[in-house]
Each structure stands twice: as structure tokens, then as C-alpha cells.
Records
---
Amino acid sequence: MEGRRSSVVGRQKETGFFYPRLTTDDSRLFLDPIFKPKSIALIGASRRESAVGHAVFKNVLLGSYQGIIYPVNSSADSVLGVRCYKSILDIPDPVDLAVLVVPSESAVSVFQECIKKGVRGAVVISAGFKEVGAEGAAREKELARLATKHRIPLVGPNCLGVINTAANVKLNASFGRDMPASGRIAFVSQSGALCTSVLDYAKGANIGFSKFISMGNKAQVTELELLEYLGEDKETDVILMYLEDLAHPRALIDAARHISGEEAHLKPILAIKSGRTAAGARAASSHTGSLAGSDEVYTAIFAQGGILRVDSVDELFDYAKAFSVRRFPKSGRIAIVTNAGGPGIMATDACVRHGLTMAELSDATRAELKKHLPSTASLSNPVDVIGDAQHDRYQAALKTVLRDQHVDSVLVILTPQAMTDIEEIARTIGTISSKSSKPILACFMGIVDVSGGVKILEQWNVPHYRFPESASRALGALARYAAWVKRPRTVKKEFFVNRKSVQSIFKSALTEGRKYLSPEETFGVLGAYGFTTLPMEVCSAPAQAGEAAKKIGAPVALKIYSPDIIHKIDVGGIRLNICSPGQAQKEAREMLEEVRRKSPASRILGVVVQKMAKKGQEVILGLKRDAQFGPMLMFGLGGTYVEIMKDVTFRIAPIRELGAHNMIHSIRSYPILEGVRGQRPADLAKLEECLERLSQLAVECPEIAELDINPLMAYEKGKGCVVVDARILLGDQNIR
Amino acid sequence: MEGRRSSVVGRQKETGFFYPRLTTDDSRLFLDPIFKPKSIALIGASRRESAVGHAVFKNVLLGSYQGIIYPVNSSADSVLGVRCYKSILDIPDPVDLAVLVVPSESAVSVFQECIKKGVRGAVVISAGFKEVGAEGAAREKELARLATKHRIPLVGPNCLGVINTAANVKLNASFGRDMPASGRIAFVSQSGALCTSVLDYAKGANIGFSKFISMGNKAQVTELELLEYLGEDKETDVILMYLEDLAHPRALIDAARHISGEEAHLKPILAIKSGRTAAGARAASSHTGSLAGSDEVYTAIFAQGGILRVDSVDELFDYAKAFSVRRFPKSGRIAIVTNAGGPGIMATDACVRHGLTMAELSDATRAELKKHLPSTASLSNPVDVIGDAQHDRYQAALKTVLRDQHVDSVLVILTPQAMTDIEEIARTIGTISSKSSKPILACFMGIVDVSGGVKILEQWNVPHYRFPESASRALGALARYAAWVKRPRTVKKEFFVNRKSVQSIFKSALTEGRKYLSPEETFGVLGAYGFTTLPMEVCSAPAQAGEAAKKIGAPVALKIYSPDIIHKIDVGGIRLNICSPGQAQKEAREMLEEVRRKSPASRILGVVVQKMAKKGQEVILGLKRDAQFGPMLMFGLGGTYVEIMKDVTFRIAPIRELGAHNMIHSIRSYPILEGVRGQRPADLAKLEECLERLSQLAVECPEIAELDINPLMAYEKGKGCVVVDARILLGDQNIR
């Protein structure tokens, strides 16, 4: 905990806050009044059956809440037979939690009464805040300000409420249709309406929850605090989230890593982040008034935090079923046992598509299978026990493949054929699964005939699926999660750099009111952070270019120097392979003329004479500081790979060694860096180091708004990388 | 029909047969005895309840078959109270269809009796054929031979049987658990076990079938004949197929295009092709003993035939539900009506991911919506009618967006909130949908609470889904299909070419026992087919290279000429930009030395002197003749795009104009051809023409086994393409 808490402090320095960040040392204690209140005041409890205030009150009562609930209603004496109070201040006993279902206009004053009463937590269900415009947003801001000032956690506004199914609490403070079954899955949603659907789906699919939280507008309590709370929650094994934006991206990464990524206390986190596409993001901003960032950044955040990103609700619960068994494969080698060849092929296809490999069964396994299976059965993987198989054959096959050391997980497929004793087979799988340390998933293909078997699988806690595709996808997710947990633990390196010289560069540029650094300054900053840069000189006249070429030594390149021209080549602003000072002078003159002609509006500050780079593999390193996400690093191959194929990867700085490694390995064109057609592999170690240095630069120099190293020339293994061209843009001073 | 039949003859010349092709003019009449028999002999009808021969007989009886069934059993007098015959020959009346459920050893002799009896069709359910080894394969071959000789259609062996739910037939000649409901979907499966699962799934999901066919080993009747039959079947609106391989790929393309692609009689075809991945294909070949081809080729075949390829069974039926309503969108502009923002965003994400665009609602539509919806509702797309919406608000919103000319289809999302009158809303959607020409899909999110509404949607024939992802995916499929139907109709061009000179080149090479054509021969073939090639000369000595350079004119390139060296650059076998005859002679000598040193085992036949190509965009055109698929064309960009990014596309020759267009547009790197960073667009028209010429070459010259044009240099619009390097390999004479 100690290390973690200190990193919380660290991250507060790194990222600006979009939402007011709660200044708490321990989310667990802080949120307890929300989830485990001893007493509740429901302000706005209503006698009118169609009212939300009625539904919430009824849910608390019918959910067998273990504490005391006090309905508050200014005009009624009782609701559902329970005595009412005119105001929360009239309640004679202490109140832990205030639940507000009041018109938004009166929410602030009601909340002020709650503060006066000394409540320790609040859930504001009422709508009419940020989502309806400026006036609502002002009210919401005031609620959050008051809550934070008085150290009261506040969930909402504009939410469905919260549910805790724990036996000693049994709180359904929501207006969902009814209390969900108890289970070990927690669900956090930024959409209240989705909650009602998820509750109904869970009811039909026999899925239970530990906690169920509708976050609403996230005025104060956000997914970060909830995640930290659920991370410590003993009743929760898997955390599911539906998100439309993130309040504290960098902090979420740290919290999620800690919760999901440590073998000592594994707790997988699965999330839907909607608003993936540009059109989707538009809908998001009209919906919650929140700013949705670019999708690639969320992918990076989830990857860095070890959060499994999923696309749909059924995928989310397909995975949750598999994860809640808490049995994870050693690696991705899967065995399939099936009574039908076709579905076996489909499952194989799907497994491979989801990153698994088909286990090669050992000779001993095949020999053992041969003893138990008919001669026409397939003894290789998928193991086909043939259509007339009954539970004895399934039992033999399943036990045998489970014993094989090459098998990490098993998918059992059943098609309901004439001879199939479906329920006996389900029982057999259940019995074996309960004793196995390897995950076993079942796919009983169909709906009606297999329903008896499915019920038995549920009793035995065996995750089951209707078709091979969804089962394989869930197994793939298990394996990805297992790989994440087993990842090598690396550190964030700290390089010795010359911060002082960088600061003086920034200072002089800012003093002169310049946002773009000059080529010399840019190379100065990069050099101070340990990047190798090519010798170069900025020249204001052609004659000077000749001298510079002489000093630097042929061959040289000429580049136009203009803060207004980004794609120099498009305006004739690049000349390569110049072999003599005379030629340098001549071409500098010609180039200046050409660029002035082609780009008359651009300010031209001179010509850069630079040592020609030896040919290598061009890559691009980038940094962009985002108000919401903080410093984002980018990596990709040069040229069309970035521009056309969009083959780039992002991470939020700072990154660890493994992060740099993963960035380089995750682009599609990575094999090019390993060397194609007889080329030697690029200096990957040095590339990783460059990314780590860039990460340090990003964190230590908040003055930089954008930085492009394009290209960085990567040479073969052991020969390093050289910055050929780069560009640094300083930010407004308020973006840090 | 006339045109189609003649193309059937044409295609028989193009493709070798993997299976014996049925010589029939009219599949419809040919297969009628299978699907509409007036009388059936069930040979192997059994009194033993666990026997397949019992299950099939019972299914025929309980399915209310409208004809007469004669059980045949050599030892029993009756089965289920029906009089038995010792042999089919003992049946006093004519028999249309023989269904065989007999040991595989006796299948051939039993079938010979059937022939003697004069049956007009056969379904062989028995297993024990190709799938169990050589002996079984021989039996299967003999069955097929006899069937084809006597012009009797034979389905199977090793299958579940066939089902026809038509009211005047009601035939369930299968051993599935029970008769499916009647419907307008036909299902054809290469996996019998999958059939049992699909029947169970359909029972649970209230899906009905017109025909249901388990093809088994496809000894004689294959998916091609079945597709042609179902294409003409008046009871079938949508055809679903599960395939593990294809018997007649080229013929299937033609048949599928005709069935699915003509507006006059639309019949969508949806297919799962399993064995997609390498591991999957391994399972396929151990399962059916059939050869599965590379996955990209199947993608090409399905694209060319207008067959929608899907990955999983639930996707297949999700689509079938939407397609069976037979209402297709004009284009991909979708409107979403929802009572919840979050699910609206999820749907938007999914729609965009599946190729749809969010419709821009007109001002009139927004004004009209404003009249009916509360002030907090979203009037833009997705239209959010807010959580407390009841059917009146849904009705107003749905009617309004349907009237908007910018809307081609509508997705209605419902989350079961406290106020939601689910069943009334379902009825409202049903009523509106029944009068609409635009497709309307419903997504009632949940299971239990929404079940009453779902039942009503089913009564109204509104396709419904549990979550936005699957609904959006189905809508995307509808739009893709609609676009396919509306595709421009183009022709297969016929270029004037010099076939005679090509034939004489082949003849002389084959006479000399050479399979690789020389550079001159290769350019000769391509030149005869209208490709522009660079001037070149093959030289046997360095001095000759100097002369050739003089004749051709500087600058020239030198390339090593060796049938054994494919990647010339790797052994120093390429020298570029040679400016004088003297230099050509010198470099030719040096190159010969270098190549001999680096590749001592290669036969070196000389040096090719060739005019240097001007810089353009390098692309690759390829042709590979496959025993199963026939001539496959390939297209991609040069260099790493093909080798690393695998960014290539395939088609089976011949292709039409549109096919060439689609090949070029379907690679990911296509934008590069349109010009990046100020480059002019490539000569796309000429590139298309090159592909069409290659297609003609592929069809007219079966001697060519493989051909690579790598690179073809494409210049800017209007400036054409030039073959820089190419390679032609002739095939064994039996591959045609």
C-alpha cells in the first residue's frame, strides 16, 4: 500500500485534473458510507407509484436492507407504511447516507441540509444537471464543491443508484426493476439506462453481482475511486466497467495495474469504452457533455493498466463468466473435446483468431485416448469423441487431456445428438472441473434440448456458452489476462540528463515569445536528453551554407528553416547528397528561391546545413501533451506506414522498459524492424532506450506541448539511432 | 436462364473437377425426388429405439409426411406398426426416394437394388465412407459413380438427412431430435452434428426453415446443386450454408451471383466457411479428408459470388432474421431511436464499425421531433427519447425519422426502465414496421423483463436483438448486401491479343523441357497480351551488355539472368542507373563475378540489359493456377506492403471490370495509389486494364502455372503502366 499511495501523490503532479480529484488517502474507508451505511435518509421518497422516489424506496424495503431507512417527504406522513420526516434535519437518529431524489433546483439546498445533519455519504439520483446545460452544470459543480469541502463522497447526480448485495447490507438504493442475485462480479456504469438492461440480462442469464454502481455524471466520485474501492472489496472477484470517458487517466492506469496485475491478489478488470468511433464520440459529447478522447489513447491506457477492453455487453458477461471462476491458464495452449467435427473446426478457427494455440497432445495422451475412444475417433486436437459419445467417453477424454502437460485449458463442446446424455455429461464436466486447476469451459450448442445440461453446468460453476465462437473468445481473454499477470516486471529508468540546459533553452524561447524551437534549440534539447543528433548549422545566407558544408564535411543535406513549413519536401525545401561547399552554396540559393516561390506566405529564417544521414530504417517518435490524458508518446515506422496505414502505437508517459518494448512490438509493421530480405535487424535496444528517454523528457518538461522526431534513423543492432529531423512546440503555460 | 446455362458449360472448361460434376441442365427437376418424393423406401428402418434407422423412421411418421413411407428391414415384419418389406424390390408400388441407413459394407449392393427398383433419388445417411479411410472412400466413389451413371441424385453419405417443411410434403428424413418449424430460411450444412445444434437453437429462438439439408461427404450432390435448387425454390427467401470446402468454386461463383445478385429475384446467401486458420484447416482435413484451400481464396470466391461470409452460428442467424424480412436499405445511412444515451453511443460505435453511417437528420425532421419529445431529448441522431419514454414517444420518433429522406434504416433501442411500457412499444414498432419499406430492427436490451415485448416483435416479424452490437452488425450486413445488389453491372472485357505468338513461345519452351520462360519469352507473352514492357536484351557476355546498353540508350539497368535466383537483389544481381555502354560492360563483368561468388550453385545464363524504368508507384500483379480453385489473380503494392503487411487481394479469373476495380480498391494501402503528400494519383484505369488483361491471359493460357509481374510500375493518371520485371512458370500439362 505504501508504495502505491506515494505514487498517487506523484501522479497528481503529472496530470491536470478534469474533475476535482478527491483528496483521500484511502478510498475504501471514504466510500464505505455509500456501500455499507447503517442508516439512510431517502429524500424525495414518494407515495406516487410512478415516481422514481417511490421506486427507490420500495427497492430498499423489498431488498431486505439490514439497516434503517428514513423516508423524507415534505408533504406525506408515510410511504408504504413507513413514517416520513419533513426534512432530513427532523430525523432524530444519525444518518450515514443521504439518497437524493429531488428536483434538481432544490438539490443544493437539500444537500446543504444533509451536510448540516452530518451525513457521511450521498447518492444523488436526480437528473437535471450537466446533461441539461449551463445552469444544471453550475448546480452540479456546487454539489461537488460542497461534497469535497466537507469530505463527503457523492455518487451521481443523474444516476440509477447503487446496489450492494452483501448479506450484512442488502442495499438496493436504485430504481432498477428489482434486486439482482448476489455474486462476485462488480459492475460500474457511466450509463444508468444500461444498468437496467444489464440487470435484466443478468436475471435471465443467472449472473449475480457483489456491487452495482451507476455513476451518473461523476460530479465527484468517479470510476477511479470506485475502482480503488472495489479493488479492496473482499466480496468482488471481477470488476466490469462501462465507460464513456475517464476522469483521471494516468491515475487509473496506476490503480488498475495494482488491482488487476499482481499475482498475490488477482482481480481482473474488464471494460467497455464507448464512443470509439468519431461518430460515437459525437454522440457521447451530446449525451453527457463530456469530452471523449481519441480511441487509440484509450487503447493505450487500457493496455498500460492491464484492463481488458471489450466491445459489447454480451462479450463483457461472456468474459465475466469465465473470469469469475478465478482459474487462469499457464499459457494459450488449448485442447478441444467435441462430439462433432464441424463445431471442432469452428472452435479451432475461433481459438486461433483469438490468439490461442492448439495444444500438441503428447504420445502418452494419444495412447490413453485410444484406450477409451472408438477407432474412428480423432486422437489429435480437437479430440473428436464421435457423435454417439456418452458421458463415459467425455469423462475419459476430458481427464486425459487435462493430465497432458501441453494443455493449459480445455473447451468441451457438445452437440445434442440422439444418443447424447446431456445432463450426465454436464455433471461429469462439473465434477472434473471442480477438481481441476486448469480452466474448463463448456459449449453446449443449442437452446432447448441442452437447457437441462446448462442448468447443471451453472450449479457446478462451469462457464458455458451457446456457440464455439464466444467460448473461444472468452478463453482467449483468460489467456491474455494470464499473460499480463505473468509479464516481466520492469522499472521506469531514470537517465542522467542535462535539465539545466534544457530549461535555459525554454526560457530564452519563451522570453522571445517563440513557441517553436529553432533547429539548434531542438537538437539542443534532444542532445541534453541523450539523443544522438547529426551535426548541423543554421545559415542565414547561401555563402554561409557553403562554409558550413565545409566545416561539417560532405555529403550534407540542406533543409529550409521556417516555422510555418511542416512538410518541407512539398515546397522543395529539402536537398540531399550535396558533395561540395560550392554545390551547397549554389543549391542553398536555388532552394531559397524555390521555397519563396512555392510558399510565399511562409516566414523563412534560413537554411539548415546538416550532415547526410547514412541510410537506415526510418521511424517516428512523437509526444503530444493532452489536457485530459497528459503526455502521450507515439511510435511508428516512417513514411506511408504512419500516414496511410495508421500503423502507430500510443502510450501515456511515463513508461517502463516493458512499455517501450511493447510499443515497438505492437505495430503491424514490426517485422520490418527485425529485418526483411536479408537486412539486419534494427537496433531495437537503442530504440527502446530512445522511447524511454522521450518518456522522461515528457514527464520532466511540461513546457513541451508537441514533439516530433521524424525521422529517427535506426541502424543495425549495436549501431544506434540518430535524430535526422525534429520539431518541438512549446505549450501555453497553463497546459502542464 | 439461357445465358446462365451457357455459362455453366463455359465454366466446366475452366475448372477441373474435384468431385464428379453432375451433368444436368436443370437442378430443380433433378433434385425434386429428394425434396418432394411421393413415396419413400427407408432401408434400414429399425425396431430398436436407439438405432438411427428407428429415429429416421419415427421422424418421417411424426412429421406428418404427406406421401407414403415403406420401411425396409430384412428381419422385422413391422416397425412402429407399419408393415415392413424384406427388400426394396419387394415393394409393390413405385418408389421415388430411397433413404439408406444400412451398414456401409452393404450400401453399394443395396443401392444397386434401388437402381433396379427405379428410384429417382437417394439419401445415404449411413456413415463409414471417405471419413474412415481408403476402403470407405472406394465404396463412396462407387456409390457416386452408380448414381451419376443412372442420373439419380444422391445426398450423403455420412449425413443427418434432409428436411422439407412445405405443407404439401412435410418430410423429415433425418435423425434430428424433432421437426423444425416451417419458415422461409433454407440451411445447408457440411457438418451433420452442427445440424442438431442448429435445430435446437432454432427451436429456442423461434426460427423456422423451408429446407434443411445435411450434405455429409458430398459424394455426388454438392452445395452447388443444392444452391441452384434452392435458388429456384419458391419456399425459400434466404439461404444459409455451413461449408468446410467447395466442390466447384468457379461454378459456385456464377450460381451464387445469379441467385443473390439480381434485383428481380433477390435471395441472399450467407455462409460460414470453417477451417479459416491454418490450424482450423488441419482439423478440416482430418475430419472429412477434404482439401481446404487458403482462406484468402475463399474470401475472394465469396466476394465474387455475392455471398456474405460470417464467422459464427449466432451471427448467421442474427443476419438471417434481418434478411428474411426482405426489406433492404437504399444505402448505409442509419437512424437510431433510443430511450438511453449509453446504448445509443454503443450502437453508434457498432454501426460505424460495421460500415454504416449515421444519418444527418433534416431540419424538418428535427422540428417535428421537437414537437413530440421533451426538451431534454436529443433531436440529433441517435434520437434519445429519454428514459421515461412510453410508446407514444417511440411512435412519434420512429415515424418521423422514417419519413426523413436521409434515413435508410432504423434501429430502435429499448432499455427496460421503470416507466417503459415494453409491450405497447413492441406493438407500436410492429405496426409501423409492417407498413414501412425501410428496414427497422429492434434491440430490446435484456432477457426477462423484455420477454413479453420480444414475443410481440416476433409476431410482427420485426427482427430483434438483445444488444446493440448484434443489431448493428445485422444492419451492416443488410447494407452490404443492398450495395452488392445495386453494384454497377460490368462486363468481362475481351482484348485483342496475339494468342498465336504466345502459343509458339509455350511450344518452344515445352519442347526444350523448360518450365521457366526466358526474360525475352516472358516479355513476349506479356507484350502479346497488350502489356507495355521496357526495352531489354539478354546478353551472354559483358561486351554484349555494352552494345545492348548503346542500342537501348542510357540509363539502363543490369539484372542477372538465372532460372534459380528469385530474389536477385540479395545476391548482387541488380545494378541500376548505368549511364554509358562502357560502364554497362564493366558492371556486367563485376556483377557476374559477384553473383557467381554469392550463389555458386545457381545456373547463370547471362545478363539482362534493360532500359531504366522511370520512378513510379510499384505494384505487384500475380497469377497462380490452383488444382481446386483454378486461376487466382493477385494484386498488391510492391515491397514490404506485400511481404510484411500481407496487404494483397485475390480473385478467381475471369474477372469483370468491376472485379478489377474492387481488387485495386480493397487493399488497405489503396490511398497510396490515390497519391499522398502532393503526389499525383496513379493511372488507376490502366491498372484495372492490366488486371483484366491478366485475367484473360489466365483463362486463355492454361499452360501458365504461375506468373509474377513484380514490379509493374504505375505512372500518374493517363501515363500508363510498365512491366519492369516478370516471371512465368509453365505447369505440368495435366494442370489446366
---
Amino acid sequence: MIPNLKIDSERLWSMLMDTAKFGGTPKGGVKRLTLTGEDKQVRDWFRAEMEALGCTVTVDEVGNLFARRPGRNPNLPPIAMGSHLDTQPTGGKFDGILGVIGAVEAMKTLVAAGYETNAPIEVVDWANEEGSRFAPAMLASGVFARVFTPEYAWSREDRQGVTYGDALEAIGYKGSEKAGDHPLQAYFELHIEQGPILEDEGRTIGVLTGVQGMRWYEVTVKGQDAHTGATPMRLRKNALVGTARLIEAIDAIGHRHAPDAVATVGLVEVKPNSRNVVPGEVFFTVDLRHPEEKVLEQMEADFRAAIVDVLPPLKLDWEEAMIWNSPAVKFAPELIACVDRSVDKRGYSKRRMVSGAGHDAVYIARVAPTTMIFVPCEGGLSHNEYETIKAEEAAAGAQVLLDAVLEYDATLA
Amino acid sequence: MIPNLKIDSERLWSMLMDTAKFGGTPKGGVKRLTLTGEDKQVRDWFRAEMEALGCTVTVDEVGNLFARRPGRNPNLPPIAMGSHLDTQPTGGKFDGILGVIGAVEAMKTLVAAGYETNAPIEVVDWANEEGSRFAPAMLASGVFARVFTPEYAWSREDRQGVTYGDALEAIGYKGSEKAGDHPLQAYFELHIEQGPILEDEGRTIGVLTGVQGMRWYEVTVKGQDAHTGATPMRLRKNALVGTARLIEAIDAIGHRHAPDAVATVGLVEVKPNSRNVVPGEVFFTVDLRHPEEKVLEQMEADFRAAIVDVLPPLKLDWEEAMIWNSPAVKFAPELIACVDRSVDKRGYSKRRMVSGAGHDAVYIARVAPTTMIFVPCEGGLSHNEYETIKAEEAAAGAQVLLDAVLEYDATLA
């Protein structure tokens, strides 16, 4: 009994291109930092567009925007679709934005068809997902999910010392609704992959099953500075050689637990970093990710074993500490099933996958059944003005979003 | 018929401590940059001290100072002993200075004994060895050896735009003698090791046989930036992993040709150097040294083979270039023999060695028979305010310097 409602792919693409003008950059990207004038422009557009569809728009105390269309059963909490409209300083036109605009398109399709759902349907714009102006990232979805207090969010400061609370009031988006006083029946987030897997395999839709657990570490390897010419190999305590072996060992840990594991050294600082001095100290960071906490434990143990194997024979000392631990998230099986059925119904190619990056869905999964849908982006490029997606793949994503919501809604009859 | 002349170790140490006040730092080091007021102070001291001994002091056009005591045969060019009195910005009390002050002590011993040599004897202070204020290093010994023209030297500028020529005139040390118009019978340079070998082996004197050939390279490894969470291991082009393997391969090249070879990566710059970005580009430097050019050729070939072995399988591209090539120097066997005999006569422990660092002797070896004598320095530490040597080892070095000069002089009878 689920109707075959087709989204309008040209309307979707037009909305993506039109809203990209709010903060549009000469290189074709978007600079729309949280709670700036450009963010207010896109929020005003969103509110006007949704009110024109007959939706009720509310704003919560940390600036999250909800546009609701009533359902047949007013006692059911809403099924929400959304993501974020803020961007990185040199961001693209699609990261986060596709999830909100795709939801707007789904809502337009519903309204045009006059189809009445069982539950209310909401489109959500979560505030400050990027965290570029106000750290940390996913701030307002975090307050919604009671990971942070509203007071914490309001007190965040940008580099000019402006608080999040003051910036919210300045653009008129500090709402009266208490954040989180707003149960969700379910939450679906459409997003660009921000990685190369779908493109590499030539698939259209990523059916997400969760978000990787992530652990960050900092390591300082300590040896001794020495003259490169006057210090024989056997008398060296070369912190960079020890670091090189650990970089390889960490890369090998990623490969050993492939395809789901990733392990990376991204940042290296060598001291004194001079052509003719054997490096006496190296600082580096480690990023380990896996969808299963148990495997992540093993990767961590492997990493720590590598340190103990590699450094003492080189007469090197070290300090090591885990500085961040974000547990793995499992998405709701009943929502994943709805996405699966929707993809199959439309005949799109798909693969199950786990998000390697954080999203608002990570926090919302703590308070509501949640899942995500990915579409490919060219070369896996994101957080970049050249971020690019194909119009037909954007449309496929929005279609699956709408279909999955309707699939899920049908179970509430 | 060579007299047994004993240097005065207390007088030597007093001169080292007294002259260390010209530019002395609170931490016990010396800041005496080339042609500054502090350099003028120590030059004035040197001139006065040598003239008091009856020596004739001349200055050449690039500021090299020569203090000559006549010999029996006025037709013989002088046997020179020396090094440099300038220091690094945070230098020690001994680097270079020991070679000049040790020579002054040798001269004082000769004069006190009234011993007449066959050849004239000279003590030399080569200007601007360090190159800290005016690059390049070993500038004025380089002009003496016709590696550089005097015009090149005069035109060197410090960071304030003051030329070497103007600075020479400002302190009154631009002499009239043309640089290099001054043949040397032989040149002996006493120096601290600036490395850990003598201390590690518990030996007092290093009998130098030459200076390592040195080759410097720059390498840029090119991969692709990617999100650490969203990019599976198999789709990465991780420039840092390629670099890590090359750092290890280069270290292995040093070990393979040990004990004489050294191979070092000293400087590494990672881009974008962010915790959650797979590094897309890494720049690093390579320093290869060996006393034999033939071995250095092999090390270079091994290094280039490692690049070709390591990078393509990782889907990485690269640029590589040699940016400096300083050929190996062989010291004069007849001078080395004089040092050997002198060390044995005094019963000091010794080892043959090759200098890993550059010295004025590298250039002087092009125009005169040359050798060097090393004494240990604590922990191999140099170019540092905490540079330390033992008074008895300084004395042993000065004693061998004097004895070797007398040994050599005896061959000129």
C-alpha cells in the first residue's frame, strides 16, 4: 500500500545550486560558517520554503530547525529526515546540504502527491555540524541527544570571542523549544560518502549499518640529536627511524583487519628537523577506526605492541596516550531494512557500508532509531570547494530517502 | 734530533677560558659571530699575544690572520697550524677555538724553548668558518684555496644586509695581502671531534686520514590527500607510508656500509599534516656520507633503487634531486705519519678516523699538504653552549699538534 512517489530530480538539483549561492565561492564551493549571515540566509530560505509547503517550522534553544508536516496519527512522534546546512570554510555544495535539500525535495513530493503519512514527517537542519567556527563538531545534534548541555553549547566561542549563544540571538535563531524535548520516531540521514568506495565499485547507494568506532592517540618518540656526519650508525638514537617503523606497523594493522579497518598516521613533527642533524624527537598522531569495538581493541593492542617491539632495540624512549575515543555506532536494523527494500524497488546498485566519518546521526542514534544513506562523490573528495556529485546520484539518494521513510511509516499503520 | 718540548697545559686551559669571555654567554657557551665586535676582541687579543711572542701578524683581503715565526731557512714556505675563532650563535668554547689556541700554545712553547725550526711556523685564524652570519661556511679558507673569489666573499650579506666586505672594514680587518698569495708548506688543524666515537672507545687522539664525501638530496613523495575514516586501506595513496619505508631503507644503507658510512633523513615535512587526513605529500632530505667516492656512488645507487622499489607499488609518484656534492678529501700521508709518530711518542691512545663534518682543512687540502687531529668532546655534543672537553685531552691535542709540526719540520732539514 506504499505509493510510488517519484521525486523531481531537476527541482532537487535546482535547489542545490540555488542555495549554494548563500556563501558561494569563486571556485564553486561554499563558505557558510555556522550562525553567520550566510547561514541565516539559507535558514531563512529553508523556513520560507517549508512554510510555503504548509509545514510548521520550530527552532530549538540551540538553533536546530524542524519543519513538520502532520500525519494521520497525531500521537506518533515524527519520522525525521535531515542533516546540516553549515559548511567548512572552503567547503563544497553537498556535504550535509544534500541531506537537508534531499529531505525538502522528499517533502515537496509528498505534499504534491497529497499523500498522508501515518506519523508526522519532519525535515531537520541540525546546527553547527562542522564545528569550524564553534568547536566541537555536531554540537547542536549533540545537545538534542543530551551528549552536551545547552549551556555548554551557548558558551562555545569563535576565534573572535563571540559565543554560540550570542551568535544564535544575533541572527534570530535562538528558539524557545528545549533541545531534545522532542522525541523522534526515527531518523534518516542522506549524505555524500566523503570517501571513494562507491565510486570505485561503481555503485549508486551506500546502505549504512553504522559508524566506525574511532580512537585517536598521540605518541612522542625520544632519542638524541646528533651530527649526521660525525655520528656512526651504531651510536645513533634516531627517533625518526623508530617513527618510520611505527608508521609502517600502523599501516600494516589497518591492512591486517581490512576491509573494515583503517589505521593512519596523519601528522608528524620532527625535532630539530634539520638536514644535518639526526632527529632526536618525533611527535606523531595515530587514528584507528573499525565498526567493531572488539576489533578496535585488538588494533589498539597491536599498535601498543608495535611500540614495545620497535623502540627499545633502537634505544628510543616514548610517551603515548589515547586522546579521543568515539565508540562504534550500530544503526537500527528496522530502518536499514527499509532502506534496503527501497533501493531494491528502484533497482539501484548498492553495498552495505559503515561510515568512517562522524555525522549528526552518530548522536541522534542515541535517542532514536537511526540510519543513513550514502551517495558517491567524485574521487571521494570532500571538505573542499571542488567536491562534486552527479545529479542522477543525488536524485537516487533523495528517492531512496523518501521511499525508506514511506516504508517505515507503513509499519506504523 | 727533535727536541722534547712540553706544552703548558694550564696556560693552554687559561687561554681557552680567558678568550671564551669574548662573547661568553650565561650558559657557559660563546656567541662570537664572524666580524662582530666580539670577533674583533678575540682577533685583537690574538694579534697582541702573537706580536708579544715576536711573531709577524698579517691579514689578508678576506680577513684571514697569519702570525709567523721565522725559521732557519727563509726560502721555505711556512708550516701552518690553525682553525677558526668565530662561533655559532649558541656555540661552545672549543669548536675551532681549540685549533687556534692550541697552536698559540705550541708557538709559546717553541718560543720559550728558543727552538729554531727549519721552516717558518704560522698560526692561522681562518675567517668565517661557521657561516652563521655570512653563508656559506668556510668562506675565507675557501677564498685562500681559490674555491671562491674575494669578490664573492665581500658580497655576502648578513640578514641585516651588511656585506662581508663592509663588516671586514668596519672592524679593521680587511688586510692588503691577496688571499692565497701565500703558499703553505703544510697545514695541521687540531679540532674537537664533534662526534661520539673517541669518547665511546675511550681514546684520546683521532688521527685523521680525510674528510667524508657528502651528498645531499631532496625528495618529494606525491600521493593523494584522503579522509582517514572514509578511505579504505586499499584505495590509499599514502605519501607518508612511502616515506617511512624510504627512511628505513636509507638507514639500512648506512648500516650496510658501516662503520664508515652514514645515511640520514633529517628533515621531513608532511602535507597537509592533519590528524584525520591521509598524507598526500611528503618532502624530505637525505644526507649520505662516506670517505670513498666509490662507496658513495654505490650508496646513491642503493638510495635511488629504494625509491623505485618502494614508491610505485604504493601508487606514489616522486621528485628527487641531488642538491649538494662535496667530494671526499684524503689527507697527506706524510703529515698523517707525523701525527702517528707524535701520538705514539707520547703514549696516547689513538684511532684513525675520517671527519664527518666540514672544516677549513677541507679547502686548504686543495692547496697544501694537510691533516687534522681530533680530541674527544663530551657526548659528541657541539654547536651547543654545553659543548665540553677535558683539560687533559685538550693538552694532549696541543702536544700532538706541536710534536707533529716538529716531526714534519725535521724532514725539511
